[in-house]
Structures are given as C-alpha cells and as structure tokens.
Design goal:
alpha+beta, 26% strand, 6-stranded antiparallel β-sheet, 22% helix, isomerase, 306 residues, elongated, 7 helices
C-alpha cells in the first residue's frame, strides 16, 4: 500500500488510516493489524513501540514514535558532504574516492569515514538519530550511499536489500574491447586464500550475478554499465577481471595502471521504494571529475568501434 498522507510532529509520525481503524470497536487492535498488513510494519519494531507507549490513537490520527532521539553511534568528524536526496526517513550522499565507508577499528584515529561525515552532518543540522548505512561501497569506488534515518526506515530498507529490491547501476571503464556477447557474468565469488584483501571466482563461493551493458568500445578500453543481482564484496571488480577485462586502475585485480589512481568504477544510479510511502525514489550521482577525464582520454585515443 502507498501511504500518501503523513505528517511529522516532533518525535511523532501521524497517519490517517481511516474507518478501517476508527470504525472498529477495538481501535487499538485494528490499528496494529492495519500497520502489520497494510504498511508492512516490522513486527519486532511494533512490539518495541508498544512497550514504550509509542503507538497512540488521537481522534482519527494514528501516532507512532518513530523519531525518538537516539545517539549518533559514531563520532562526528566534519568533511564536505554532497547530499543527493534527503527526507525524514532517508539520506543519500555521494561517497568520494579514497574515503572508507565506516570505521574499521584500526589505529588510524584521525581518518574521516563517510559515517563520521554523516554524523557531523546530523549534529550540525540537529538530526538526533543514529548513523545507519544500508549498503556499502569500496574505499576507492565513488557513488551514492543510502542511510536510514530511523529504525523503521532501516528495517524496511534492510528487507528491501535482502529481497534485491534496491537497484544499483554502476558505470565502469575496463581495459580492452569487451565483446558484444558479454551480457551477463554468473560466477560464484569466495575469499582468496592467498591474499587477504582479494576475492576470486570459486566453485565454493557465494552466488554472484552481474549484468553488463556495453556503452562505448574504444581502442584500448570499454565503457560499460553494470547492474548487480547480488552484492558480493568486490563483485564487479572480480567478475570483470575473471572475464578478462579488469577495470582500468584496478591493480588488485590485474587492471592496467592509470593516473586515475583507483579502479574506474562509479555508482551512477540508486533506486529504491520509499520505506513509508512506497514511491519509487531514483537518485542519480554525476560522474566524478577523474572518471570524466579518463573517459575523455580514452575516447580521444584512436577510436575503436561503438
């Protein structure tokens, strides 16, 4: 069901479910049933809200304490943040190259991760909630990262990830001329026993499927768009290397060195259904400058086919 009418009042979300709730003798039970069946409200979260009087009926309004104050959970450390989309439930920000997504418990105490930067953004803007990223990007991959701004949004978006209902489209520049018949790479991915950071195609690995769309074939490189059916660590990098066309700049997986200084991989589009309204949200993230420059250099070399 799509919820079109809602309002935030401080820590409370107000909904108007109509006579399906207000017309019932046991309105509280009817409200809970409506939340579970129509809104697909996470059952565990509903029990938690009930235990703290976080579900209330006031006239024709159903009030839920979805925006209760919560600790950030991450130390705020400022960094310039490019916000691509934001509302009371979701935040989408651009992750630049060379920035880790989250603290890893290492000794680099002064490192600013994207989670640190989001914590700082929340603090500056008076957003009193925990920092919760929904998916991940490699340190040197650029693109949009989705954050859930309350426990309800996190539960719904985590479920969407599990059901593969969050669509991520990437753009990449590979070495060599990718043939037109390479449309899908279906090969399981596991850990590389000989290299701690690497992954590899392995029969005993987890299922992994990458869809490939060829955009331009140049003299010594190919511009491709990719969609993930699964989200394994380093999936695009491993699959393209396995196919014989490693990403430009991806030295870990056999790509040729380039002044881009990283794997030529960028998250271009992120699409998801809004956790409350169900509306389709499509967030586009423009190519970063280094990716633009690499594409321009490759396209101006001796032209291949298109």
């Amino acid at each position: 069901m799509s919820i079109k009418s809602w309002k935030r009042r401080g820590q409370w979300l107000e909904l108007m479910p109509g006579k399906v709730v207000t017309g019932k003798e046991d309105r509280q039970a009817a409200a809970e049933q409506w939340l579970l069946s129509e809104l697909k409200f996470p059952e565990k979260l509903l029990h938690q809200l009930k235990a703290t009087q976080g579900v209330q009926l006031a006239g024709d309004r159903l009030r839920l304490a979805l925006f209760a104050v919560q600790p950030l959970g991450v130390e705020p450390r400022w960094a310039d943040l490019d916000v691509l989309y934001e509302d009371d439930f979701c935040l989408v920000v651009h992750k630049p190259a060379g920035m880790k997504l989250h603290p890893d418990g290492g000794r680099e105490e002064k490192v600013v991760t994207l989670d640190h930067a989001v914590a700082s953004y929340y603090e500056i803007n008076g957003i009193e909630t925990s920092v919760r990223h929904v998916h991940r990007l490699d340190e040197d991959t650029t693109g949009p990262v989705l954050y859930a701004k309350n426990a309800f949004a996190l539960a719904k978006l985590d479920e969407a990830m599990r059901l593969k209902a969050i669509d991520r489209q990437y753009v990449a520049i590979t070495g060599g001329q990718v043939p037109s018949d390479l449309r899908k790479i279906d090969a399981p991915i596991g850990k590389d026993r000989h290299h701690k950071q690497r992954r590899r195609v392995s029969e005993g690995g987890q299922d992994a499927i990458t869809h490939v769309d060829i955009v331009h074939v140049w003299e010594r490189a190919t511009l491709v768009r990719l969609k993930l059916e699964t989200g394994r660590t380093h999936q695009i990098r491993v699959h393209l290397s396995y196919a014989g066309y490693p990403l430009v700049g991806d030295k870990l997986y056999g790509g040729r060195s380039d002044i881009i200084g990283r794997q030529a991989l960028h998250g271009e589009v992120l699409s998801f259904n809004h956790p409350l309204t169900g509306a389709l949200i499509e967030v586009q993230d423009p190519w970063p400058a280094d990716f633009e420059q690499l594409a321009a250099r490759e396209s101006h070399s001796v032209e291949g086919q298109t």
